[in-house]
Amino acid sequence: MALKIFGISIGRHRNAVTAEPAADQPQPLGAVTAEHWHRLFGGDEATAERIAAVYACVYVIASTIAAMPLQLYRKQGETRSREHDHPLAKFLRGTPNGAMTWTQLREALLYRLVLRGNSYTRNFWKGGVLDEVFPLPGSVVTPKFSTARRSVYAIGENSFHVPAGLFGQADVAHFKGLSCDGLQGISPIEHCRITMQSGVALAQHGLTTAEKGAPLRGVITNAPPFKNPEQAKEVRGRWRDAFREATESGGVSILEGDLKFQPVSMSMRDAEFIAQMRFSVEEIARIFNVPPHKIQMLERATFNNIEHLSREFYTSALQPWIVRIEATMNATWLTAGDRAAGYYLRHNADGLLRGDLKTRSESYAKQISSGIMTPNEARQLEEREPMAGGDQLFFPINHAPLGADTTDPNP
């Protein structure tokens, strides 16, 4: 027997949600069709993805976040500790499903999220515990909104053997990028289509030039003037056919009679094609908020500022994505009881931010001498074995509160 909640039929177990839409049939939210991508790029959706700068931006964001350890913590009062025995912590130490690792799943999730603004995972529960997580392509998921102001997701027939039907938020995790309404993320390719079209055009121009040579443009003149417009039109057609044939065969076009060709097109150097490509790459990096040095544009990077640029990359480019992802994971991968008990998921970015060996050593020394961390905690961050007596906090004995009497009563 199923219960009806917010117009959705839900079974007794969390992993037994059935597909039954509400009577007033929720409406799709911002579906992007294949015709839309064809209209934008003159081809399929993957056209913009094939730009090297776009791939580099998506790759550096997705791979960097996926490489961070995803760990379960618990907050009890003012105490925060990492949890190891919770079922979700054990699940994170294994694999999300039988087809991929956690790194592969998170990279797939982030690829769609960064590139298209929306990403989905199907959550499978067993006995009230998360048992399997599987990424879903956006083409098989249709977000809808019920009259009870709840998001539901219609999963269509697919080749991933994920059951089709209408599911609630506990069973489908919807990761959203920058949004103007909070319901659907904005695709940067769609939002900045002019820049993307420019990048596609430049890349296509470079490919065409490499394969067939630069297009030849100019004016055809005749020693005696053309008798009428029809004769000029006929000559232009004959020249076009001859040039096309010569281009395809790698030969030379021949002008008949007293015809003379005067080129008027600019050369690659005059058109500053390379400068345009560089500007296009900078624009794409700006769209994804990725520092240019992260996609191998090192003109303005130096050895003095590269470490600061890496920290800026984390705070400005990665942290917004991490916050969005963690919020969705905590809302969908944890039960209400887990959240009430203080459990939460967090990406550990210590490995990314700890800097070089000298900087890390100085930081550890200051924190150990100030009683902030123990020697064994520092050794753990460096992946070294703990030492005996290294779990104690140390504090300088010459420190005392202001105004305290520091005279020893028993000299």
Q: Any descriptors?
A:
single chain; 411 residues; alpha+beta; four-stranded antiparallel beta sheet; 14 strands; flat
Number of helices: 15
How many strand elements? 14
Strand order of the largest sheet: 3-8-9-10
* Percent of residues in beta strands: 15-25%
Largest sheet: 4 strands, antiparallel
What this model shows, in words?
By secondary structure, this protein is α+β, with helices and mostly antiparallel strands. Among the domains are: 159 residues, no CATH class; 51 residues, no CATH class. The strands form five sheets. Strands 3-8-9-10 form a four-stranded antiparallel β-sheet, with no helix packed on it. Helix 3 crosses helix 5 and helix 7 runs antiparallel to helix 10.
Quick structural summary:
It is built from 15 helices and 14 strands. It is an alpha+beta fold and 411 residues long. Among the domains are: 159 residues, no CATH class; 51 residues, no CATH class.
List the topology elements.
Blueprint: E1 3-5, E2 8-10, E3 27-28, H1 34-41, H2 46-49, H3 52-66, E4 70-76, E5 79-82, H4 87-93, H5 102-116, E6 118-126, E7 129-136, E8 141-145, E9 151-155, E10 165-167, E11 172-176, H6 188-191, H7 193-212, E12 218-222, H8 229-249, E13 259-263, H9 268-271, H10 273-287, H11 306-332, H12 336-340, E14 343-347, H13 350-353, H14 357-369, H15 375-381
